[in-house]
Amino acid sequence: MNTPPDPFEFLKNLWGPMGLPLSGLSGAATAMTEVDRRIAELKSVETWLNINLNVLRMTIQGLEMQKAGLAAMQSAAAAMGETASATTPQQPPAGEDPAKK
Fold it and tell me: Fewer CB atoms inside 10 Å of the end CB: C or N, the chain?
């Protein structure tokens, strides 16, 4: 079977004697472009992940602040409940006359 002629063979022969291998040059440029494209993609993914990480950290901090606020309100409510029960006079059980004591 005959293989089809390489369309770049003429250019390879033309540039070859000048010391500029065309196949290596174009392959390196293509490879460099591909590497640059991949680097740009990965940097954009890194930026997106950093933004999401910062949002996650802020959400966690917000929830921790809410938790601390709720704990403070609960402890204040418990302290007010203890204060109210300590200052309220004791009521005698129902049916008992307080004057008999």
Answer: N
Q: Give the closest residue to 21 by CA, choosing from 29, 30, 12.
A: 12
If you average pLDDT over residues 67-72, what whole number do you get?
Answer: 96
Q: Which two tokens stand for residue 72?
A: 């403070």
From CA 23, how far away is CA 33, in angstroms rounded? 15
pLDDT of residue 89: 62
The label of the residue with tokens 């993914």 reads: 45
User: What does the alpha-carbon distance between residue 74 and residue 67 come to, in Å, rounded to a whole number?
Assistant: 11
Q: Is the pLDDT of residue 86 over 60?
A: yes
For residues 92 and 98, the answer to whether their CB atoms sit within 8 Å is yes
CA 26 to CA 28: how far, in whole Å?
A: 5
The amino acid present at 54, given as its one-letter code, is: N
Confidence band (pLDDT; 50, 70, 90) for 29? Answer: confident
